[in-house]
Amino acid sequence: MKIPLSYSFRNLWTRKLTTGMTVAGVGLVVFVFAAVLMLAAGLQRTLVATGSDDNAIVLRKSAESETLSSVSLDESDIIASQPEVSLGSDGKPILTKEVTTMINLQKKGASSNDLSNIMVRGVSPAGVMLRPQVKIVQGKMFTFGASEVIVSKQLIDGFEGVQLGGSIRFAGRSWNIVGLFDAGNTGFASEIWGDKDQIMQAFNRPTFSDVVFRLKDKDAFNSFKSKIETDPRLNELKVLREKEFYAGESETLASFIRILGLVVTIIFSFGAMIGAMITMYAAVANRTVEIGTLRALGFKRRSVLVAFLFESLFLALIGGGIGLAVASLLQLVTVSTTNFTTWSEISFSFALSPGIIIGTLVFATAMGIIGGFLPSVRASKLDIISALRSS
Amino acid sequence: MKVIKLILRNIFRHKLRAALTILGIAIAVMSFGLLRTIIGAWYSNSDNAAPDRLVTRDAISFIFQLPLADRDQIKQIPGVKEVTFQSWFGGIYIDKNQFFPRLACDPETIFDIYPEYVVPTDQLDAFKKERDACVIGERLAKDYKLKIGDIMDINGDIYPGKWQFVVRGIYKGQKETTEETNMFFHWDYLNEQLLKTAPPRANKIGWYVVKIANPSDAARISEQIDGLFKNSDAETKTETEKAFAAGFVAMSSAIITGLQVVSYVIIGIIFLVLANTMLMSARERTREYAVLKTLGFTSKHLAGLIFGESIAIAVLGGILGIVLTFPVVSGFAVAMARFFSHISIELLTVVLAAIFALLVGIIAGIFPVIRSTKTTIVDGLRQIG
Amino acid sequence: MADVTVQVQNVTKIYKRDSLDIPVLRNLSLSIPEGEFLALMGPSGSGKTTLMNLIAGIDKPTSGNVTVAGTNIDALGESQLAAWRSQHIGFVFQFYNLLPVLTAFENVELPLLLTNLSKKERKEHVETALSVVGLSDRMMHYPKQLSGGQEQRVAIARAIVTDPTVIVADEPTGDLDKKSAEDILDLLVRLNREFKKTIVMVTHDPHAAEHAHTVRHLDKGELQ
To answer: Which of A70, A332, A25 is nearest to A211 (CA)?
Structure first.
C-alpha cells in the first residue's frame, strides 16, 4: 500500500514558514551552483567559438600570446608558399599576416584612471574571410591603406569615446571608426581591427605577430607541423590549430575560475544537504504519532520511507527550480575581466544549456535525497507502539 | 548559571539537530572566511608596497618591454635616489606547476631598493661576482630543499633554451608578510644570450623600480618620468608601487565582485539554517513555554531563553567555523599556488565572521521570540508536542 | 466562617475561533472557601477547564470578576499576573509538563528561581517538597527515567514548593494507571487535610471526584 503523494505535498504546505526557509536555502545553493556552471560554460563557449578547426595559426615558439610573438616577412612568405595552405578562387593563398598589439581604453562611466587593455589587430584582406564568426553589422569594412578601423560593437557599450562615425586615437594617429562588427561569443568581441600595414607603420613594428591560414585538408596540419619542426628557416616558429591556440590562451583564466567554482560548489553542497537534513529530521520528529498511526493502519516501513523521501525531494526540487530560474537571469549579464595570459580584456557571458539545466536539477535532487535519506530511514524504523505513545 | 545550563541542555535536546545546525553554521562561517581571505590575497601585494618606490612600465601594458637606455634619463630627475629594473623571465622549473617569480635584475642595485629582502653580505657579494648566480627567497629554499651552491635548471619559454643558475644567496623577508618566493638573477646573463641569438630582443627590460627620496614627491616625479618618454616608441606610465599592484587587482574586479557577492549570500544561508532550527525548536516547545508562563515566568524570561539559545548555537557554530577556516585556507593555498603567492587569514576576517555569526544568532531568534510572546498560555498548553 | 479564597462573580468567557464567537462560560458565579477541595466535573466542552484557567490566572474573563485571596486578578496586567501566579498558584497538569532537560530536583526548583531565595534556601524547599510527595530518592533523575506516576508526583512537588494559595489540577490522573492514580489522589487529599491546601480539581472521572469534599457540575458553561 503506497502512501499518496499528496500526503507528502500537503505536509510541506502546512508548515509554510519552515518549508519556505528550507526552500530558500536550497534555492540559494542551487543558484550559486548553476551560476558557477554557467560561468564556466560561458567562458568555454567563448574559447570554443574563437577560432576554427580549418585554420592554423603560426607564431613564435617562445610567445605565450599573439602580442608577444613575431614572425618576419621572410618567414611569412615561406609559409604562404607551402602546399598545405588552401588557395582561393583567385589562386592566391587564403592567408592573413597579422599584427596584434594593445591600446588603453577608458571604461565607460569610470574614472579616467580606469583603463583596460584592448587588442588592436592589423589584418590582411583574407583576415575577415578566415573568421566567419565575425560579421560586419553596421557601417562598412575599413579601406586598406586608410587610417580606418572597425570595432566590435561590444566596445561601444563598455568604453568611452567609441562610436560608429567617430574616431579613436592611438599610436600618434587618428583612426576613423567606419564599421561595427558582431563577433558573437568569440574572443574577437573585445577587439579593434584595421589594415595591418597601417598598424605596423603606426606602431613601428618591423615584423608580424602571426600568420593565420586555411588548411587545405584534414591532413595538412600534421604535415605542416612536421615541416615547421624540421625546416631550419621555420623552426623558431610553432603552429597550432586556431581553436586550440585560443583555448590555450584562456586556459589559465579558465582553470582559475573552475577551481574557485569547484571549491565554492563543494562547500555549498554540504550546506544544502545539512539544511535539508535538519528540516527533514524535524519533520520526522514532529510527526512521530502520525507515523505510528500510518504503520498501525498497515502501511509498510518502506512506504513511510518513500513518503518522507518524496517530501524531501519536493523541497529540493522546488528550491532547485527557483534557484535555477533566478540563475537563468544571469544570461543577461556579461562578465568582462582580464585574461591572465594575454593581459587584455576578455568578455564572456553566463551560458545556460540544457545540460546545465539537467545537471542542476540532478544536483538539487541529489541534495534532497541525500539530505532526506537518513531522516526517512529513521521515520521508517520507528517502533509502532512507542511512536503512538509519544507526544 | 542556571539559565546557561538550561540553555545548553535545550540546545542539545536533539543532539543530531543541534550538531547539524552547528555544523551548517560552521561551514557557512568557514566559507565566508575563505572567500574573504581569497579576496584579501588579491590585495596583499599592494599591502607590501613601499611608499618610496615607483614603478615605471610601458604605458599600454606591462607585457611590453622598455629600452635599458631609459634608465640613465630617469636617474637624472631630481628626487630620484636610485633606479633598478626587472624582467619577467618565466620559464619552467622542474615542471609546469612550479609557480614562483623568476626575475632578471640588476644585482648591484636590486637589494638596495628592496631592503625588505635581507641577504647576508657575503652571499650578496658572491651573487654580484658570478654571472650565473641567483638569489632565492627562504621559502623557495625550504620548499625545494635548495642550499648555497645548488644548481637550478630552468627551461626557458619566453626566452627559449636551457638555462642554469647557481644559488649563491638566500634572502629572508624582513616582515611576516614579505614574500620569500622570488628568484633573482643577472639580467646581463640573459642579455648576452639575446645579443647572440635574438638581437631585436636585447637591451630591453620589463619595468623600472624607482626609489625616491621623499614619498610626497611621488606624483611630481611620476609625471616627469612619463614626460621624458612621451611621444617616443615606448611611452611609459609611472605610478607608486601600491597603485601598480592595485592595477592588477582592478583587472580582475569582475571576479572579485562576484566573490564578494557570494560571501554575502553565504551570510544569508547561515541565517536561514539557524532561523529554521530555531523556529522548529520554538514550535516544539510551545507547550513548555506555556508551562513556564504558568509558573510565573514572563515573556521577557522566555525571550532571554530563546535568544540565549539562538546566540549560543551561532557562537558554537561560529567558533567551529573559524577553526575550520585555517586548514581549508591552507589547502586552498596549495591548489591556487600559481595565482597567489601569499594567502593568510586576516584578523579582521575572523572578527567579521564572529560578528556576523552573532548578528545572525540574534536575528534568528526574533521570530521565535515574537511567537512565544504572542502565544497565550491557554493556546500554548493546548499544543501537542 | 472560613475565608473565601476564590470568588468568581458573573463571569462570561467567549472564545473567538476563525471569526466565530463561541461562548464557553455564561454568567457564572462561584465561591470557594479556604481549605476546600473542589472537584469540577462535566462533559467535554462544558467549560470546566476554562473556569479553572480563569481561577488560575492564565486566562481572563470576557466580562465579570475573579478574585483570589483578595486580589482582583482580572484587573492585573500580564507581568503582574505572572508574578502573582508564581506566588499564589500551583499547577498540576494531565501530562505532567515537566521540562525534559531538567532533573526532578531542577524541575521542582524552577518556580523558586523567580524568588529572592538563596541557593541554600531553595535547596531546602525543594527537598521538603520532594519528601512530601515521597520522591527524595529520585531527585537527580530526569523525567524520562521516571514512571508516569512518579512524574506526576514531581509535578505536584513543583506545584507546592512555593506554598501557593490554591493548587489547580487539570485531570491529574487522566494519563495514569489505576494504582498510580490512586496514589496521586491520596496525595492530593493529604495535601488538603494535613497541609490545609485549597485544591480545585477538574476531572471527568467520578471516582477521582469522590476524593474531593465538594463536587460541582458544569454543563454548557453553567454551574448546576
So the answer is: A70
